[in-house]
């Protein structure tokens, strides 16, 4: 029997959904909406869940979502920390510990990312789990795929070659639920009930096709592939020192030490550092090669990383990004 001492989960989800403007997640408000908030199908797409599962949660037929589902809902609904913790409690879960790597994206950061419609942008945790991305990110790098276990992770892809994006012949354009001038609805990872999308991030090679990095479209970078790998490992060691009790981080380190001799050697070197921005060439099946700056921004208080690809105004790469943006709009909104 459900314990309702902390409140009704379904009613909370409905009230949070009703208060969130479509514009805040990069969706057009439209003239045909009967209510100001998000539709159930929009919340489902943002959280990476099936519409049926969202309906069952709101109707009380599903009452105990997993921690991953609760986290995805908190991100999609743009809850603040107190609301996120309450969602976990009502769901019968322990709220995330401050000793774990944060994966909750604050509402202000979500609004910022959603409004970067002309920029391929994604959000990573401190341990390089990719947790959300814009449609233009998927249009540029390919639609992200879900790994067999755990969250998609940049460091794992670098040292195991695990694929992070589907090629164009597998998916066509990236989907997501919104894109366009001034908008960029952000999809999110959630290995939850029903449909689920997961994510990845760009890696690359020194020159030529990216081999053994889990990424096929990034064909060159300003630094060497060895330096890129060493930078990621040094960054991960810094994160483990900051969050020594995080089970995901410790499991990732143990997995990669076992799976990759190169990772093991770099880890045992003891180097500590922070991953830096780079300039990369991305090979798109639609527009060819684009030379782009790939910059990493840190979010104070959360250790999240925002990764964005940009091109100089008026450049050939900027024109190609504009074409991809239009293609992403058509894929996300077929009737637009």
Give a brief rundown of this model:
Helices cover 39% and strands 12% of the residues. It is α+β, with helices and mostly antiparallel strands and 336 residues long.
Overall description:
The chain has 336 residues and is of the alpha+beta class. The chain has two domains: 9-90, lambda repressor-like DNA-binding domains (434 Repressor (Amino-terminal Domain)), CATH 1.10.260; 107-332, Beta-Lactamase (2-Layer Sandwich), CATH 3.30.450.180. It is 39% helix and 12% strand. The protein is built from 13 helices and seven strands. A seven-stranded antiparallel beta sheet has the order 3-2-1-7-6-5-4, with helices on both faces. A hairpin with a 4-residue loop joins strand 6 and strand 7 (304-310). The radius of gyration is 20 Å and the shape is globular. It starts with 8 loop residues before the first helix and ends with a helix.
